[in-house]
Specification:
295 residues; alpha+beta; four-stranded antiparallel beta sheet
Length: 295
């Protein structure tokens, strides 16, 4: 890697370490940007990625997708183009050299805006691929990411400059190897794009009972085709995906609100608090009350 690559990484490390010492998951004044600072390796934790790019500044992570376990580090980026369930653990971290990373989320409108300016492109080859992509970090990608982070020093510039830099980041991704990966989920008519529609529908209505036959019809797929392609992309079924969304929302509610676990169960769509508690403990390794801020 070039010397500039190391300079940008060092700048990001200094920013995270000096500004956010003692914090772990850090929201910033830029809505799309979040930092992570973790001092020790973690256990596997179930999560759901939003459409985003994730980069590591220091340390390493392992990401489990179905039966696969994939690692990435400061020389690799992770790209998610749909809401994607995975199991994640920080594999390299210590108090002296903590794990540091950042996530930049994108909207479908931002992706379409870049595609429109790129003009006609050939359709991606082959069938649907997994909903996460690992690419080699390039200087031309790290440089605009660093400029986005620098905007935190100029709050008056954030509203104007953020959309421009996000567009540049997406442009670089679309021109790189990740371009075909992103396109497969938004090109009209292919199975991956229809699964992406189904994922969006489930996410928007995760509290409601899920009828897979009706869902398949709404995205113009047969029930068997939806199930096959959904599992190929996410490694789980539509019903399992809905359950993970419900449990993640429940965990956020428990950790941020003064609310009983039984009430949370009903709020996220469960009819049985006992079933909710069993599935919550199976997913997160602890019962719901362990995450409540009621003590």
């Amino acid at each position: 890697m070039s010397q500039d690559f190391g300079i940008y990484h060092q700048e990001l490390k200094n920013r995270i370490e000096t500004t956010y010492a003692g914090e772990e998951r850090i929201e910033t004044a830029i809505d799309a940007l979040r930092f992570y600072l973790i001092s020790n390796p973690t256990e596997m934790l179930a999560t759901v990625y939003n459409p985003s790019i994730c980069i590591i500044v220091q340390g390493a992570k392992k990401v489990g997708i179905g039966e696969e376990l994939l690692g990435y580090d400061p020389y690799t980026y992770l790209l998610a183009s749909v809401h994607m369930p995975a199991n994640v653990r920080v594999s390299e971290a210590s108090p002296e050299h903590p794990y540091m990373g950042l996530t930049i989320t994108f909207t479908m409108e931002q992706i379409f805006d870049v595609l429109k300016d790129l003009g006609p492109v050939s359709k991606p080859q082959g069938g649907p691929k997994r909903g996460l992509y690992f690419g080699d970090m390039q200087l031309r990608l790290l440089e605009p990411i660093t400029r986005l982070v620098r905007l935190l020093d100029s709050p008056e510039d954030i509203s104007i400059m953020t959309p421009l830099i996000l567009k540049e980041i997406l442009y670089v991704l679309m021109r790189d190897q990740g371009g075909d990966f992103i396109r497969q989920f938004i090109m009209d008519g292919n199975a991956a794009q229809r699964v992406a529609q189904a994922i969006t529908k489930i996410k928007e209505n995760f509290k409601e009972p899920l009828n897979v036959k009706e869902l398949a019809r709404s995205v113009s797929l047969s029930e068997s085709s939806l199930y096959h392609n959904f599992k190929k992309i996410t490694a789980i079924s539509p019903l399992q995906f809905q359950k993970q969304l419900r449990l993640h929302e429940a965990r956020l509610m428990l950790m941020s609100q003064d609310i009983e676990a039984a009430q949370v169960a009903f709020e996220v769509g469960y009819e049985s608090p006992s079933q909710f508690s069993r599935e919550y403990a199976r997913m997160f390794g602890l019962p719901p009350k362990a995450h409540t801020n009621r003590g």
